[in-house]
Amino acid sequence: MTVRPLTLDRLVVTDLRNLAGVTLEPAQVNVISGNNGQGKTSVLEGIYLLATTKSFRTSRLSDLVRHDHKIGNVRGVFVEHWDNGPIERKQSVGLSGGRRTVRLDGEAPPSMSHYATRSPVVVFDPQQMTLSTGPASERRTLLDRVTLFTQPEVSGHRGRYNRALKERSKLLSMRWPHLDQSPELDAYESLLAEHGAAITRGRAQACERLSREMKGAFAEIAAPDLSLQVDYGPGGSPDRDEAFATLKQSRRVDAQRKRTGFGPHRDDLTFTLDGHPARVVASQGQHRAITLALKLAELRCIATSRGVQPILLLDDVSSELDADRSAALFAHLSRTQSQIFLTTTRRELIVTGVDAERRDWRIEGGEISLVSSA
Question: Using an 8 Å Cβ cutoff, are 298 and 122 in contact?
Answer without folding.
Answer: yes
